[in-house]
Amino acid sequence: MDSKSVVISSSESPFTQAQHFLEHELKAVDQLIHEKLTPKSTIIPKVTHHLMKAGGKRLRSILTLLSAKLCGYENGTRHEELATCVEFIHTATLLHDDVVDGSSHRRGKPTAHTLWGNTTSILVGDFLFSRAFELMVADGSLDVLQTLSTAATKIAQGELLQLELNGNLKATIQDYLEVIRCKTAELFHAAMSLGGIITHRSTAEIEALGKYGSYLGLIFQLVDDVLDYTAASSEFGKTVGGDFYDGKLTLPVILALSKADSLEYAFWQRTLGERTYQEGDLAKALEILNTHAISREVDQYTGLWAQEAQAALSIFPESIERTLLENLVDFLRKRSF
Amino acid sequence: MDSKSVVISSSESPFTQAQHFLEHELKAVDQLIHEKLTPKSTIIPKVTHHLMKAGGKRLRSILTLLSAKLCGYENGTRHEELATCVEFIHTATLLHDDVVDGSSHRRGKPTAHTLWGNTTSILVGDFLFSRAFELMVADGSLDVLQTLSTAATKIAQGELLQLELNGNLKATIQDYLEVIRCKTAELFHAAMSLGGIITHRSTAEIEALGKYGSYLGLIFQLVDDVLDYTAASSEFGKTVGGDFYDGKLTLPVILALSKADSLEYAFWQRTLGERTYQEGDLAKALEILNTHAISREVDQYTGLWAQEAQAALSIFPESIERTLLENLVDFLRKRSF
Questions:
Q1: Which residues in B75-139 belong to E strands, given as ranges?
Q2: Phi/psi at A84 (5° precision)
Q3: Closest to B149 (Cβ–Cβ): which among A40, A93, A137?
Q4: What angle do CA B312, B26, B31 make, to 5 degrees?
Q5: Which of A6, A19, A177, B63 is most buried, by CB atoms within 10 Å?
Q6: Quick check: B160 and A41 CB within 8 A?
Q7: A109 forms bridges with which residues in the sheet?
C-alpha cells in the first residue's frame, strides 16, 4: 500500500490519525521492543511487559517515524529501530522518575516500583538504558549516538535541577523552562532529529526538525504540569496533585506566586515549601490558580511555542507527514488527559 | 621520563606499584573526571566529589591504562579518556547498587544515598552513565562503544539476576558464576579490551586482554564475597555482613549449603531464606563457613582463575606493564580489605 495515498479521517484525533498512518511501523516497533529485551533475567520481561502494556502512547516513537518518513526514508528499518531506542530511553527515565517521585500510578496503572519494588525499577531502568545504547551502536551512526547520548545526559541534569528546586518558592520562570527543556524537550528534539540524520538531510533541516521537537516537548510538559492540578484523575492516568504533594515548582505555581498576597504566599509556603498538607489543600491550590487566571497565561506560552513549532516545519514541502505533525501541535496543546 | 625505566620497588604492594607507574596518567584521569562533570546542577559535583574523594581504587582505570601501554599506546590521551568512561560507568553502578542494597557505608565512608537520599543517587548515577556515553561518542570508535555498552547491559542483567536469587537457597554455583561474570567480570573484561582496541591489535590479542580482565574480575568479586564474612570492618571499608543481611547467595554460602546438616540448613533458611536475624548470627555464619573449610575451596577457584589470567597474558612479550598486571592477580587474590 502506498502510504501517501492514506486518507486522513477527520473524525479521528490527530494522535489517532498518526497511529493509523504509522500502523505498520508502530507494530514493528512493538515487535522490536519485545525482541530486544532478551531475557537473561525473568523479571525484565515482566516489568517491561507491564510498562509497555500500560498503554505507552509511543508519542516519541511516532515523532521519529513521522520525521523519517517526512524526510523520505523508505527502504529500511532504521527508523523503527531508532524509535525503539527512543522508547527504551524514555521508559528507563519513567522507571527511575517513578522511584524518585514515589508515584503510585502512571497511565492509570500501578507503577512498576509499587508492584516490584524500587530496586527492580532502578535495575530494569539501567538495563533498558544500556540496551538502547547497544541498539544504537548496532545501528552504527555516531551522529545518532551523539544525539541520543546528549539527550540522555540532559534528561538526568533536568531531573536533578528539578529536585534541587523542589520546595524553593524563589524558583523563577527561567529555572522552570530550563528544567522542562532538559527533562522533556530534549528527547522530543532528539526523536525528531533522528529522521533527518538517517536521511542525510542538511544541518538546517535537521535543526528545523529538532526545533519542532523541542517546542512540542515544551508544550507537552507545560500542559502536563497544568493537568497535574486540573485533570480528572480517571482521564489523566496519573495521580492528580502529584507535583503539588512533591513540592514541585511548576509554571502554574511560579506564576501564581508572582501574584500572591500574603495569605496565598503563606499557603504555598506551608504546602510546597514545607510540605505540610491539610485536607482540601489541592482544591484550594486549584482555586488560587483559577483566581489568577493562570490557565490564560499558560495558553500564551503554549500559543507562542505552537507558532514556533509550526514555523519550523514550514521549510519542508507539504506532505501527509507534515500535516500529521502540524495537527499534533494543537492536539497536545489542548488535550485534557 | 621514560616510563620503561621505572624501577618497581619490591617493598610496595603490586597495586601501589601500578599506581606509581601510572602516576601521570591517573592524575590525568582525575583531572578528566572533574572536567567532564560540567555542573549544570550544583548537586552533581557535590555527590561525585564525595564519591571520588572516598578513595576510589581506580582499579578499572588502571586496567585500561596498563592494557593500553602494554599494547604500546603512546602519543595520545584516548586511554585516559576511556579510563574516565570506565570509571563513570563503575561509579554509576555503585550509586545504584548502594540504593538497591541499602548499604550505609562504602570504602569506609557513608554512601551517597545516606547523605543525599535515594533520589539523588539514582539521578547522579544516570547522569554519570549518560556522560560516559557522551565521552565515548566523542572518542568516536564504534568498537569502544560496543564493548562498553555491552558491558553496561550485562551489569544490569547481573544485578537483576542476583536480586532474583536473593533468599533462594536452591541457587547453584552456576547461578552465582553467571551473576559475578555479568555484574563484575564484564567491566574488567571491557576495561582491558579497550587498550587493545585503541592500538588496533588483533582479535586474538584483544580477546586475551579481555580474558585476563574477566578472570581478574571473577577473583576480585569472589574474594569480595568472602571478605563480606571474614574481613575486619575497619579494613574492609564496607559494612561486614552486608551480603548476609541482604540474603545474598554468594559462593561461600552455596558451598556451605551443599555440606549443611539439617541444623545448619535451618540456620541458613531462617537467615538468608527468611531474613529473620538474631544477635550473633553473623558470627555463627562465619563459624559454619570455617567448619566446612570453605576458604580452602574458594582458594581452589581463585587459584584456577589466577592461572587462566596469567596464561592469557603470556602471548604478550615481557614488559613492565605485563609484570604489573601479573602481580595484580595474586595481590587481589590474597587481599584482606
A1: 105-106, 109-110
A2: -65, -45
A3: A137
A4: 140
A5: B63
A6: yes
A7: A106
Per-position DSSP letters for A204-254, written without gaps between them: HHHHHHHHHHHHHHHHHHHHHHHHHHHS-HHHHSS-TTHHHHHT---HHHH
In whole angstroms, give the CA distance from residue A129 to residue A89.
5
Query: How many pairs of residues across A and B have Cβ atoms under 8 Å apart?
Result: 136
Place of cell 545504547: A133
CB atoms within 10 A of CB A235: 12
pLDDT tens digits for range B249-274: 999 999 999 999 999 999 999 999 99
Q: Hey, CA dihedral for B319, B320, B321, B322, is it positive or negative?
A: positive
Euclidean distance between CA atoms A310 and A215, whole angstroms:
9
Contact state of A159 with B126 under an 8 Å Cβ cutoff = yes
User: Per residue in B79-95, is it b (16+ CB within 10 Å) or e — as a string?
Assistant: bbbbbbbbbbbbbbbbb
Cell of residue B336, nine digits? 584482606
Chain A residues whose CB is inside 8 A of the B142 CB are 137, 140, 142
DSSP state of B333: H
pLDDT in tens, B178-233: 999 999 999 999 999 999 999 999 999 999 999 999 999 999 999 999 999 987 65
- pTM value? 0.88
Q: Tell me whether residue A108 is exposed, middle or buried, using C-beta atoms within 10 angstroms of its C-beta: 0 to 12, 13 to 18, 19 or more.
A: middle
| pLDDT in the model for residue A19 | 79
Cβ contact A321:A66 at 8 Å: yes
Contacts of A110 (CB under 8 A, 6+ apart): A104
Nearest chain B alpha carbon to A153: B130
Query: CA separation (Å) from B328 to A272, B309, B310?
Result: 54, 10, 10
Give dist(CA A125, CA B250) in Å, integer.
25
> A111 is written with which cell numbers?
507503577
Q: For residues B256 and A54, which has the higher predicted lDDT (pLDDT)?
A: B256
